[in-house]
Specification:
The structure holds four protein chains of four kinds. Chain A is α/β, with parallel strands linked by helices. Chain A has two domains: 191 residues, Rossmann fold, CATH 3.40.50.2300; 160 residues, Response regulator (Rossmann fold). Helix content of chain A is 44%, strand content 18%. In chain A, β14 and β15 form a beta hairpin. By secondary structure, chain B is an alpha/beta fold. Chain B folds into two domains: 165 residues, P-loop containing nucleotide triphosphate hydrolases (Rossmann fold), CATH 3.40.50.300; 77 residues, no CATH class. Chain B is built from nine helices and ten strands. In chain B, the strands form two sheets. In chain B, strands 6-7-8-3-9-10 form a six-stranded mixed β-sheet, sandwiched between helices. In chain B, α3 packs across α4. The longest helix of chain C is centred in the N-terminal third of the chain and has 32 residues. Chain D has a two-stranded antiparallel sheet. In chain D, α2 packs across α3 and α5 crosses α6. The longest helix of chain D is centred in the N-terminal third of the chain and has 32 residues. The chains are: A alpha/beta, B alpha/beta, C mainly alpha, D mainly alpha. At the B-C interface, α2, α3, α4 and α5 of B face α1, α7, α8, α9 and α10 of C.
Chain lengths: 426, 250, 348, 294
């Protein structure tokens, strides 16, 4: 039943319609187009909102002095990946092909960062990651164009494991449970902690593991089950709003009173948002807390500027994103040009100064030796929200994966299909 | 009349949550018969048709067609054996053209419905045009059947049933909603089909002039039981049938 | 209307004029889609490729919805399966790309057969919810099966075969495959099997009584639709260079529904037109605002309330359309061939 | 698995089930009376939670802060529902299933973005009232007092709906219109008023449920998208259009989930869809549904 009579017009109009919509490509311009792909919708929305503030602040400061190398004002293009990898890929392509960006600052969640990493590799664009800390980005899915300036899951987990191991000895713990949202980031974090604890304190047994679904709002079943197991210690990695729900329901069941609890995914953002609802006395690991680096002039300046602009303290993500722009600036200055190819070569093994002091990239995986900050959540008169007490700073070199293991993992991942051979030799 | 038995019903029963629609009914239909089933509303005529064509499953009893027991068969198997049905309420394919409606039944009869590769327009044209013409609706071949008049739709209903080249044609009130002239035409067609092709036909009808005008055998159904069965003259003389119809007894 | 007797050749040339215009129309689309890429910038090549792949996905959905009258809310499951099968075969084995496509079509077809066996026994809302449930089953299995499918990380860096690496060559490759698929679909819906589908859509009950095993035919159509969705998925994987479980999620099943409703389900090319408008709208809307769902939601409401038949119907006023009980109303909307719906009560 | 662990699981399963019931009851009521499957029902639940936060912020008194803000939020959602019913839903009564699904799906997208526009992306936290934040020992395993409020509210709503449908004139008219809208219209009963009444009532219940949910977990975007699919499973298992079905369905879904977490954590959600598929295959109209409703 093909009634074609009226359709001739729709075809002709349809074709013209799509032609008119297509904008004509714009001539290359002098400014440095910087792309940003973050999750403005979905579970990571809050972190992305703060991260973007950090980037804006850095770009404002640099543009005041004329931009990169004093003559390339930075033009920012932000895109929302909606927490979906395929949308992240399309947006990254949109930035590279249509907006002609020369660098992209990476995404919040790891699965999207991995997808965007591939796009940047294909189109040879500099990709700086300051939020998502999946280890796969620099180890099993290594790309010469991707630089990570946030402590990855292995480093954070090792730092936590180091502080837990001390307690196991002093407090004589026997068993522990783990609970983590069921996706890659919690999986790799918890696995690293478990491996490390097996090595350092073999008598410390893992009783039970729980994997609530991503986006879970009802943890009472998990909390009652953990209380039932009566473990000495619980290691948790439940990020974002799921973590909020777990804390609140854990509080109502009195979980934190009778069990020593460490969280691998409670960042400064949570501590600032939850304030009194956040249980005190639990261990957590932070990435770039401002209060631990106030003696660093760059961090002090950032805190002052951020408070002036947004009248709140910066969380973990703001300093890292701020650093991302400055790392790019220093790499461009070293390369003396804004072309991604030269910036890539200049950035290899480079030492940069950041809000967390001077750090340097490891040649083998473009990972910077940034420290992780573990400590016990406690109140502090100076700040309206809880911060860490008896803080232990575990340096990058102490916590990152040894080079031999990195190469081993990379061979297992067999990148020969994805990367050119010369890029895999160090 | 006909020679061997085409359709045999033995002790058929059907109750719908308490209401006995059909109570141990026995019925036989021979090849080439043109018979009518009459009875007041709720006598079980349509349920009788539904049981034979497999729309409902009978509680007990047997239905034999061509000696083969088809009790409990699904409608499409029964139809493939050669029982075609036209419905009381219009039951056609409204968004398809009249031609496509009938062709669909022809394709099903030729077992081509699973054929993904040959274009439908190349198949069954001859048989479809014949049926359309015999039913007098070939003029509307390319008209979307939903826009036909009530009478034409009823004829299309009949044409679709004929598309299956049935051995037994069951018509549920074929002339309902038709003008006198149209119902005469339809019944003439039914008559010629019965005569020329020796096609056995059973139909239900309320219009007594049609029943006594054309049927050569009349079965009177009342509360699920056959109370009279025979030639029009015998049935007219039968008092129980009259009592039921003339309404002495509710 | 008097009884004009159409001679045999009147009928055939009526069919012919129809098909002549059709071939003209088809050539125009095909010609346009060859010329267009040479005009537009590279980014829009990606958008055009996406239009083709999602258009094929929407047309596979319309085989079930427009031509069989059943709304499947889990079509993304077979799309996702096709994408994952191809992604895994390319990254983990050295099977050549064309073989991967064929294998993914078969895998999607087999899953459609297994799930379809149960779905075809239901109609209307039950069919929609069961297909959705199976869709979510596939989604969560891919999401949880961390070791095999890479879990929520999905599979990244799917290497595209050398000669298809640049955007233009992949576009033309997708164009050829999608055109072949469209011709195949065109043949299928105009075959006697295709008309049986329309009969089932229009009046599922009556189709039983003319000797057609409705469940068997619906199952075959379900498998065919699943295979075409699998093909679309396997084209998507190397194009997007990465696959994620989200491809099989129910929110992804909403895309072909929206495209088909927007384009017009009653027309063969409706979903393709819907794909053109949806993809261009989506890529341009997301460019300047974060609140694309608000815009998309408003458009859907306007389409459903005021443009019932979709874009196609706006230009098709003349034919006027028919609903189930024959009354003429603007914009045909395929009434689900509900098994026990009032109009099929004829048998009672 | 020790004794009180099982009890703990049952209790948390029941409390989660009651929250699911509060949402699904309205969903089932709308479907049975108005034959509309409201995709956006969970979005109104989420809107109720956000409004509770706003009213709690405005009233900001520890004693009756929450007690006043939950009903206020529920009534606000009722009012919003009334407006949406008049403008939108009334036009799609006799549209096909697909159009209804698409229109209500569009509502989900729109409400989601309007929430983001008004309340931003940060999670909103509503503290539990002091007297309800304690713990009580039920058969030896700890159980938050607050969940008793959830369970009793669900029980109250179930009884209230049952009383309304079976005991009041409005209820009889509602049930009559389930069978044939034309007949009820023909009797001179204003059908539209019944439909608006049912829609607004269901949304008030959803708003109430949202308000009660706010103190349990944080109020965040996207909560509605994940729970609406579970509500569909509840409706399918319990049976379309039956209130008892919604109650039993939500208990089955949440208890299956509660125990699946213990036994096979990874497959918990997959299990719910398997159960739904099995029910749909064996008994499409669910445990308590009626075959009539296709």
């Amino acid at each position: 039943m093909m009634h074609m009579r009226g359709l001739d017009r729709v075809l002709v109009i349809g074709l013209f319609l799509s032609l008119l919509l297509l904008p004509f490509p714009v001539k290359g311009a002098e400014p440095y187009n910087l792309g940003v792909v973050l999750e403005f919708t979905g579970t990571g929305a809050l972190y992305s909102r703060h991260s973007y503030q950090g980037i804006e602040l850095a770009v404002e400061e640099i543009n005041k002095e004329g931009g990169f190398l004093g003559k390339h004002p930075i033009k920012l293009f932000s895109r929302d990946s909606q927490s979906k990898p395929d949308v992240g890929v399309r947006e990254a392509k949109d930035l590279i092909l249509r907006e002609k960006v020369k660098g992209i600052i990476g995404t919040q969640s790891s699965n999207i960062a991995l997808a965007v990493e591939e796009v940047c590799y294909e189109y040879k664009i500099i990709h700086v990651i300051a939020n998502s800390n999946a280890e796969a980005m620099t180890v099993s899915n290594y790309s010469p164009y991707t630089y990570q300036i946030v402590p990855n899951t292995y480093m954070q987990a090792t730092a936590t494991a180091v502080s837990i191991a001390k307690n196991v000895k002093s407090k004589g713990w026997k068993t522990y449970d783990t609970i983590g949202s069921n996706y890659e980031y919690p999986h790799s974090t918890i696995n690293t902690v478990v491996e490390h604890l097996k090595k350092t304190s073999p008598e410390f047994k893992l009783a039970k593991q729980y994997w609530p679904k991503l986006g879970e709002t009802e943890f009472s079943a998990y909390v009652t089950s953990i209380i039932g197991d009566k473990p000495d210690f619980v290691y948790a990695c439940v990020p974002g709003s799921d973590g909020f729900a777990l804390f609140r329901q854990g509080n109502s069941y009195g979980l934190f009173k009778n069990v020593f609890y460490a969280s691998g995914a409670t960042f400064l953002t949570e501590m600032m948002e939850m304030k009194d609802e956040l249980p005190r006395g639990i261990v957590t690991v932070l990435r770039a807390p401002f209060f631990a680096n106030m003696n660093n002039p760059m961090m002090a300046n950032l805190v002052k500027k951020y408070q002036a602009k947004f009248n709140q303290y910066p969380d973990d993500f703001v300093p890292m994103q701020y650093d991302a722009v400055y790392v790019l600036k220093q790499a461009i200055e070293k390369a003396g040009s804004i072309e991604p190819e030269n910036v890539k070569n200049a950035m290899k093994g480079m030492t940069v100064n950041t809000t967390r002091g001077s750090l340097s990239f490891r040649k083998i995986d473009n990972m910077v030796n940034c420290p992780s900050y573990t400590g016990i959540i406690a109140d502090d008169p100076k700040y309206p929200f809880p911060i860490l007490r008896d803080m232990v700073v575990v340096s990058g070199e102490e916590s990152w994966r040894p080079e031999s293991e990195v190469l081993q993992l990379r061979d297992k991942a067999d990148l020969s299909k994805k990367r050119r051979p010369e890029e895999l030799k160090f | 009349m006909g020679s061997e038995i085409l359709l045999q019903i033995r002790e058929l029963n059907k109750t719908f949550d308490g209401f006995r629609a059909i109570s141990n009914l026995n019925y036989e239909l021979r090849l080439g018969e043109l018979s009518a089933i009459i009875g007041p509303n709720g006598a079980g005529k349509t349920t009788f048709f539904n049981l034979i064509t497999g729309y409902h499953r009978s509680d007990s009893g047997q239905i034999l067609f061509n000696g083969k027991n088809i009790t409990g068969f699904p409608p499409h198997l029964i139809s493939n054996l050669g029982i075609a049905r036209a419905f009381q309420v219009i039951n056609i394919y409204p968004t398809l053209t009249t031609y496509e409606n009938v062709r669909q039944a022809v394709l099903s009869d030729q077992k081509r419905t699973l054929d993904i590769f040959t274009l439908a327009s190349r198949l069954g044209r001859q048989e479809t045009m014949e049926i359309l013409q015999s039913c007098g609706i070939s003029g509307h071949a390319n008209v979307i059947s939903g826009t036909l008049s009530q009478g034409d739709k009823k004829r299309l209903e009949l044409a679709i049933a004929l598309g299956n080249k049935p051995k037994l044609l069951m018509l549920d009130e074929p002339t309902a909603g038709m003008s006198g002239e149209e119902s005469k035409e339809t019944m003439e067609l039914v008559n010629t089909l019965n005569r020329e092709k020796n096609l056995s036909i059973v139909f239900t009808e309320h219009d007594m002039s049609v029943v006594f005008g054309y049927a050569r055998r009349i079965t009177v159904l009342h509360q699920g039981e056959i109370i009279a069965d025979g030639t029009p003259e015998e049935v007219r003389g039968n008092e129980t049938a009259q009592r039921v119809y003339l309404g002495e007894e509710a | 209307m008097g009884d004009i007797w159409y001679s045999d050749e009147d009928l055939s040339n009526m069919m012919k004029t129809n098909s002549f215009r059709l071939y003209l129309w088809f050539a125009l689309i095909f010609g346009g889609s060859i010329v267009l890429p040479l005009v537009v910038g590279v980014f829009w090549i990606h958008v055009l490729t996406e239009i083709l792949i999602l258009g094929l996905f929407a047309m596979s959905f319309n085989l079930l919805f427009g031509y069989m009258g059943q709304l499947s809310f889990g079509q993304a499951a077979y799309y996702g399966l096709g994408a994952y099968a191809t992604a895994m075969m390319i990254t983990k084995t050295s099977i050549p790309f064309p073989l991967c496509i064929i294998a993914s079509i078969l895998i999607a077809g087999i899953c459609a057969l297994i799930f379809g066996y149960f779905c075809v026994r239901l109609v209307g809302i039950y069919f929609a919810i069961l297909t959705m449930a199976f869709g979510q089953l596939v989604y969560y299995i891919i999401f949880q099966w961390y070791e095999f499918t890479g879990g929520d990380n999905g599979i990244q860096g799917i290497p595209c075969p050398m000669l298809l690496r640049n955007a233009y060559s992949y576009y033309y490759f997708a164009l050829i495959i999608v055109t072949i698929a469209i011709i195949l679909m065109w043949r299928i819906i105009n075959s006697s099997f295709g008309y049986t589908m329309r009969a089932i859509r229009d009046n599922c009950n009556r189709t039983r009584f003319i000797g057609i095993n409705v469940e068997k035919h619906m199952l075959i159509n379900f498998v065919i639709a699943g295979m075409f969705a699998g093909l679309a998925g396997s084209l998507w994987a190397p194009f997007n260079r990465s696959v994620s479980p989200d491809l099989a999620n129910w929110t992804h099943s909403g895309i072909p529904v929206f495209m088909t409703i927007m384009g017009g389900p009653s027309n063969f090319f409706g979903p393709l037109i819907g794909s053109v408008v949806y993809t261009i709208l989506f890529t341009s809307v997301i460019g300047f605002t974060e609140y694309w769902p608000l815009i998309m939601g408003t458009i859907i409401i306007l389409m459903v309330l005021f443009f019932r038949g979709g874009i196609v119907e706006i230009f098709n006023k003349k034919t006027g359309q028919i609903d189930m009980n024959g009354s003429r109303k603007e914009g045909i909307f395929i009434q689900n061939g509900l098994r026990d719906s009032a109009t099929n009560k004829g048998a009672e | 698995m020790t004794g009180n662990q099982i009890i703990g699981q049952i209790l948390s399963g029941v409390s989660r089930g009651m929250m699911l019931f509060l949402i699904s009851s309205g969903l089932t009521l709308i479907f049975s009376v108005m034959n509309i499957l409201n995709f956006a029902h969970a979005s109104f639940w989420l809107l109720g939670a956000y409004f509770t936060w706003t009213f709690w912020k405005i009233l900001y008194s520890p004693i009756f802060g929450l007690w006043a803000s939950i009903p206020l939020a529920a009534l606000t959602i009722g009012a919003i529902g009334w407006i949406i019913e008049v403008i939108l839903i009334r036009r799609i009564y006799d549209r096909t299933l697909t159009e209804q699904l698409l229109l209500t799906y569009a509502l989900v997208l729109i409400i989601g973005d309007l929430i983001k526009l008004t309340w931003g992306v940060a999670d909103r936290i509503v503290p539990k009232p002091k007297m309800l934040s304690g713990l009580v020992n039920v058969f030896g395993s700890p159980f938050p007092v607050y969940y008793i409020l959830v369970i009793s509210l669900a029980g109250f709503v179930a009884l209230g709906l049952w009383w309304l449908l079976y005991k009041t004139r409005f209820g009889r008219r509602v049930k009559a219109s389930v069978f044939s809208r034309e007949m009820v219209g023909a009797l001179g009963i204003p059908i539209h008023r019944i439909y608006t009444g049912v829609f607004v009532l269901s949304l008030i219940i959803a708003g109430l449920a949202g308000g009660v949910q706010a103190p349990i977990s944080s109020v965040t975007l996207g909560m509605d998208m994940s729970i609406i699919v579970e509500c569909f499973c509840v409706m399918v298992i319990g049976g379309f259009g039956s209130l008892i079905g919604a109650l039993v369905g939500s208990l089955i879904v949440s208890l299956v989930y509660a125990f699946a977490i213990m036994v096979v954590p990874k497959m918990a959600l997959v299990l719910i869809f398997i159960v739904t598929a099995i029910v749909l295959i064996i008994r499409p109209w669910g445990i308590f549904g009626t075959a009539m409703r296709t």
